[in-house]
């Protein structure tokens, strides 16, 4: 394929993932009416055919509704038992470097690389743009879909824990010839001429063939020296002293131009998403009804291919590791599509709490890890293990009539958008990682999940809004550019450390602001907002695009409310809120907390309110025209660690409390757990168990005395 045809093909592939054809394909997917409890089954658990029926019997006793086979595995025992199943890990090589690759020991590989820092290592073991790899992977997908389609599997999983690197660990993949060829072709579609590329990047490439992205070492050298074409590694000690000032001197523009690095990170994000799209479509050509997706995804990050917006547009379903708001972000970007969770818990309470939380978020099922931990096949009667017994009550509750009500209901959100900016995630990583000096490759995702400041600021805003009773959604750069703030009817836009804003975004935000019908809107930003463009180039204050943000100061929360020309600053650090909310706040911290509850100017208060200090999450749903469902849960800061365990730190919320929920208007209220009628009231006294939500129905009319509310609402007996 010549350069011109390659560039043309690339332009088509990158022009957008959701075409009319893709939307039509989505409509053909098989409905997902029931919550599915899937057991991840090892070969050892089913190695003796004569004992498989007993194994499946025990699994059902535990609450399991579905099983699993690998790509070309035999589903005969599930078919005979009348049990659904899903197909796991279809693509064996290339997507996940933890297996079948020369870098399975990632930590050892990185330790060795840091001694010589050889750029030859930047060639990925499997190039995702290698036509031979892609064709081989497509064949695996087609073989699997052809084998299983007649049995209507629940899902096809392309790969578990996939990544451009490993997890979301930083490394400069992929500098292979095919990858660089594709990157240059993309740059031509992005910039048109070499002159414009050099102008954007502050570089001096003489020909397109010379163009290479900056390595991470190289961009960090620029941060130290301000050179257009830095050579050699940076002065690591000097790098550790580098700090970003959003109001820096214009003479330092080159130092803070990250475009030669950010563009490559964005391109590799697109490469992974595009590969998944191609594999998904190959399966859908054979089996148009079964959803195709991935498992074990990572936090939003500059490395690994983890632009969650791009990934979401290439998938029919996903099982995300819930790190740094990943579940909420995918939920915003994939409405109506199946989202599942893997269960690693071993205790009833912890499993009950998280599974109810995820069902209330919209999860359609869960995957239990794994069969050998749950059913003891070494014993003659194959009893459930202690873990299997502990999980059973939680799993059975997920398929109960009560849970079915919430699975059928339509979740309600407030007109609040939180900005998801992959360009800002990239810029933030470069700025935050200066303190690591030469050890930046060891800034593994296990560290990032706990310490990434940009992620903590984002989580701070999410938790504050939830504690106030709101249900916000994330909106991506691409959505903002296309007018989603206006089209979605949003009245508040939160920009959590949105370092980078594209010109199209800035214009769309300005349009949204000026077209508000009244003064009941609000924009909230964390400094420094819009200091970089969408390619990671420092622009400085852009008064012509964001005049209302150009003079905000302070550490974090800045407001622009209806009728104001400039935002007012607050020194409160939103990265601290998730911890502050669980302990005692100082008087100064309370004084400087963002004043989002001021209803004199701003958006409307939520329809149901609870005291902020109670740290309660409120979920609201519509069920038909005459009923609303309400769920109250302790607003846990869920966070999966690298070893796949749920992180602690929520002990303060693991105590029962009594709180008052104030309704906007009276309703006939029923306690869904007891079936008790509480009256036509505007206030609910909620006795909240820390391990399971309190659930209520709000009706326009009182039911007959003999009626059972769950049955009337359609949950069944």
Automatic annotation (TrEMBL):
Keywords tagged on the record: Glycosidase, Hydrolase, Signal
Glycoside hydrolase family 42 N-terminal domain ranges (all copies): 122-213
Gene Ontology, cellular component aspect: beta-galactosidase complex
Signal peptide span: 1-24
Presence of the UniProt keyword Signal in the record: yes
GO biological process: carbohydrate metabolic process
GO MF entries: beta-galactosidase activity
UniProt superkingdom: Bacteria
The protein's name in its UniProt record: Beta-galactosidase-like protein
Organism per entry: Roseimicrobium gellanilyticum
